[in-house]
Amino acid sequence: MSNGPVAAEQLRLLIERIERLEAEKKAIADDIRGVYAEAKSNGFDTKTMRGIVKLRSIDEAERREQEALLDTYKAALGMLDGTPLGHWALQRLSKAEPKPAEGEASPSAGPADGTAEPAAEESPPEPEASPEQARAMGAAAAREGKPVTANPFPARDTRRAAWDEAWCRELGTDGMDIPDALKPTPKPKKGAPGGGEGGNG
Predict the structure, then answer these.
(1) Chain-centroid distance, C-alpha 62
(2) What SS3 string covers 136-188?
(3) Do residues 85 and 157 touch, judged by C-beta distance below 8 A?
(4) How many Å apart are CA 88 and CA 82, to the nearest integer?
(5) Under 8 Å CB-to-CB from 149, ≥6 apart: which residues?
(6) What's this model's pTM, rounded to 2 decimal places?
(7) Regarding predicted confidence, which is higher, 123 or 175?
(8) Ramachandran assignment for 78, one of left (phi > 0), alpha (psi -120 to 50 degrees), beta (any other)
């Protein structure tokens, strides 16, 4: 057969193209290292810069998802260090609130149609409540099915973070599957019916 030399030549050309691209990739990687070295010499933290570059490479929805999961995981592990849950984590946890049984109202739901009076607001905590007491309150709220947004402590209060941590930690204490709030949002399968934003999950 006469196509043996042709195939060998085609293979050689492909290999050479790959080698050229690998050399270009190495040169680009060297250039990137040089930029980071310059940034470091100017006093910038290159580890943080790498994190920002990675965040800028993903879309806004995915970035919010990552930030929400990071906050939620930190809270579940008691690593908030006095900082309350961020906005996207609160929004995500509110969506993950368990559905009420038939005939029951959601703990975070507003008044039913036709109800004249709104639901009574939870009374604010005693100002002398300690972080430990705030943790106990957060765990109790999670067990009672209250949403994470029921945290009664003000922003920038370390007790708010303690309450958030206990609420999140309580989600995983049943020894069963990972709670929905700790799982990433499943990506819709390409071409699957109802796989878009409005699809049923």
Answers:
(1) 8
(2) HHHHHHHHCCCCHHHCCCCCCCHHHHHHHHHHHHHHCCCCCCCCHHHCCCCCC
(3) no
(4) 17
(5) 90, 94, 108
(6) 0.51
(7) 123
(8) left
Give the pLDDT mean for 107-128: 49
Range of the domain at 83: 59-90
Tell me the CA distances in angstroms from 182 to 25, 85, 92, 118, 133, one per residue in order.
37, 14, 10, 32, 24
Residue 159 confidence class, pLDDT cut points 50, 70, 90: confident
Does residue 101 fall inside a structural domain?
A: no
Residue 22: what pLDDT? Answer: 98
Sign of the alpha-carbon torsion through 152, 158, 164, 166: negative
Round to the nearest angstrom and report the end-to-end CA distance of the chain: 56
Residue 161: Cβ within 10 Å count: 26
pLDDT at residue number 121: 52
* Token representation of residue 154: 């003000």
- Give the Cα separation of 97 and 199 in Å (integer): 19
Give the total number of structural domains in the chain.
3
- Each residue's pLDDT tens digit, 49-101: 999 999 999 999 898 888 888 888 888 787 887 777 777 777 777 765 545 44
In a domain, 114, yes or no: no
